[in-house]
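Here is the promised in-class demo. Please do not try to memorize the tokens; focus on the logic of going from shape to residues.
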């Protein structure tokens, strides 16, 4: 599946793009969480077993048919983000679709691209019956929380502890959308 927005396009990730996804995830964490997360966590991401290319290679190789990975690029072909989404994994009863990861690097932010990507993602999930939709987001990430609220997402609950670093617990909040996604929430 492909899509576009002025100055950008997105496409399904190929099996040989684990290194690219790892680099985009690491850059996304560093840009998004600088000053909000300990620098020791951000500086060690290459060694994190959930962020390294081998982890992404396994995810891509075992990706079921109801899970998508989309790479976002500038019109010049420069990768600036990605999405990982599909069937919700049973953590939140009643929700069938989940946006597990969405990263847009700074050059792609503040242009309406995030909204376009979310709308495309909701259409994809709806088309295969994976609705309502949920996303988990760090509770300190006010910019993301505001974005999801502007798109009609409603807070559903909080996870206890996702991980702990330098004596601090990091939590996530679930945001959910009803069937119809953005259209139902904003309509």
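The designed amino acids, position by position:
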């Amino acid at each position: 599946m492909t899509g576009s927005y002025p100055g950008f396009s997105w496409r399904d990730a190929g099996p040989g793009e684990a290194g690219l996804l790892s680099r985009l995830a690491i850059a996304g964490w560093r840009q998004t969480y600088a000053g909000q997360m300990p620098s020791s966590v951000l500086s060690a991401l290459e060694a994190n077993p959930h962020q390294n290319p081998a982890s992404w290679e396994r995810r891509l190789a075992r990706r079921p048919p109801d899970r998508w990975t989309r790479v976002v690029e500038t019109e010049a072909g420069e990768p600036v983000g990605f999405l990982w989404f599909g069937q919700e994994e049973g953590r939140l009863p009643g929700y069938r679709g989940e946006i597990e990861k969405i990263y847009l690097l700074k050059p792609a932010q503040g242009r309406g691209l995030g909204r376009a990507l979310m709308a495309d993602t909701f259409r994809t999930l709806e088309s295969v019956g994976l609705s309502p939709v949920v996303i988990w987001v760090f509770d300190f990430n006010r910019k993301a929380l505001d974005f999801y609220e502007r798109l009609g997402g409603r807070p559903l609950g909080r996870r206890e502890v996702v991980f702990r670093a330098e004596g601090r617990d990091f939590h996530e909040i679930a945001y959910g959308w009803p069937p119809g996604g953005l259209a139902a929430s904003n309509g």
